[in-house]
């Protein structure tokens, strides 16, 4: 109602964003969610919700296996100024951090392992305070295993373990969030 009756309201962009979340994650209507996010981006390009809508588009396209579209959306997310959220133990999170990590994940899911390896290496180098560092190292280890480069895999697993054991529960949580995608089973 707000979007239709008062499209110039400062809350209209937020209403579109929240509506997109509802369609995507509660009503399972991905097409409508994509449409709402695209409308938000077009009609409210200067709003803070535009960056978040691009990230959500990346998530939706990734879930639909439309990997090139997902990459574009994540790259657009990274182009916006970062809005950091500070977590325990000095870790910083942001939509840009998530998007940069997801770029590697999209390549991994699409079996573009060289691109995934490069993306995760870049992520590790540029995001030293990310809560996803251990998960990025695990992806590097899995790719190295697949390539048959055991010493690199052992080194990457070691760095991941060090972050988890000596770091923070946040690192462990992020690895667990990625475990199934990486190829681990629940019992692993």
Describe the structure.
There is one protein chain. With about 190 residues, the protein is mainly alpha-helical. The chain is about 70% helix and about 0% strand. The chain contains 10 helices and 2 strands. It has a two-stranded antiparallel sheet. A hairpin with a 5-residue loop joins β1 and β2. It is elongated and about 60 Å long. The mean pLDDT is about 90.
| Mean pLDDT over the residues | 90
Sheet of most strands: 2 strands, antiparallel
- CA radius of gyration: 18 Å
Distance between the termini: 48 Å
What structural class results from the helix and strand content?
mainly alpha
**How many helices does DSSP assign?**
10
User: Residue share in helices?
Assistant: over 70%
User: Strand percentage, roughly?
Assistant: under 5%
Sum up the overall morphology in one term: elongated
What is the string of SSEs from the N terminus onward?
A: HHHHHEEHHHHH
């Amino acid at each position: 109602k707000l979007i239709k009756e008062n499209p110039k309201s400062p809350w209209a962009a937020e209403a579109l964003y929240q509506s997109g979340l509802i369609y995507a994650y509660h009503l399972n209507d991905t097409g409508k969610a994509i449409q709402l996010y695209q409308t938000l981006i077009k009609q409210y390009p200067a709003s803070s919700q535009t960056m978040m809508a691009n990230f959500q588009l990346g998530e939706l396209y990734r879930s639909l296996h439309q990997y090139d579209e997902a990459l574009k959306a994540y790259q657009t997310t990274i182009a916006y100024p970062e809005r950091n959220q500070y977590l325990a133990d000095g870790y910083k999170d942001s939509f840009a951090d998530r998007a940069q990590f997801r770029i590697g994940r999209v390549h991994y899911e699409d079996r573009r392992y060289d691109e995934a390896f490069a993306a995760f290496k870049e992520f590790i180098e540029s995001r030293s305070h990310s809560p996803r560092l251990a998960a990025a190292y695990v992806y590097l280890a899995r790719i190295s295993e697949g390539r048959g480069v055991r010493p690199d895999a052992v080194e990457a697993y070691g760095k991941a373990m060090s972050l988890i054991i000596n770091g923070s529960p946040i690192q462990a949580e992020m690895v667990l969030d990625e475990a199934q995608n990486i190829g681990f089973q629940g019992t692993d």
